[in-house]
Amino acid sequence: MTINRRRFAGASGAGALFAALGLPGRSEAQTAQPLDSVKIVTGFPPGGTSDTLCRRVAENLRGSAYTKSALVENKPGAGGQIAVQSMKGAPTDGSVILQTPASMLMIYPHIYKSLAYNAFTDVTAISLACTFDFGFCVGPAVPDAVKDIPGFLAWCKANPEKANYGSPGAGAVPHFIGVLLGKAGGVELKHVAYRGSAPAVQDMVAGQLQAVSAPIGEFIQQVNAGKARFLGVSGAQRSRFAPNVPTFAEQGYKDLVFSEWFGFFAPGGTPAPVVQHANTALRTALAQKDVIDGLAVMGLEATSSTPDQLAVLLKQSYDRWGPIVKEIGFTADS
Question: Is 334 domain-assigned?
Fold first, then answer.
């Protein structure tokens, strides 16, 4: 099955992406003895979204037909690059699995002059892990009268010294969403890069930062507590996690439709039977209620795929972001 690029580009959250993938029934597991131990590598520290996803999946892999033991290894640094780089030379027997957000593979190759890994040869696609949309939120530093994206951009034009927004880091989707919103509204929004979403959201609710662009799940608690308010979300359709919040497209920014995904990958050159065995195990884990419910708390939709579907999705995502990065003119050195 081929994933239609137009459908994905317009697919909002997980539900639409899931439908676009047309996920088939789970493949038959390869006959193999369980591994003694499996290591799931993430490029982010304990306690974050990526780490939590890995730990929930690891819990469901332990004692399965795939492995007797499963551990999570955190390799934070360089915006997730170190974890991806660690796949080079890693065993190809299924005992080492990378879990990474898409940005490290679909955007970083366009913004770094030289990466220490190749997104298409140093890793092998196994399965999608989850999908999510992004939100754009403001805090008490922005007047209550500002209730949507056009209102925020108009306020920024009138108050250019306050036209600021934060994101989890430079060079990832939330950063670029802010840039593109500013361009669409004819106003320059000053980007403030943080080391993750949490400190950016904390500064926003404390009134030290006007707005934040980040995954929807990062805002749910603060919005529910009345400390922040959504102005818009990035999907083609409204998110079930923020059903009353209009999309950017609904507010007139029809080209600003973005979702992102996390995926599981094996080292480059991993044999197909090993990849298929890992795929079956991971899809089984991702279908468990505790994983689905646990990810939903963070605004993530547990979503699996075949290896080929993830490989196609990666290529489509990579191709889509090349022109966007070129238009923005951002490089990691800028």
Answer: no
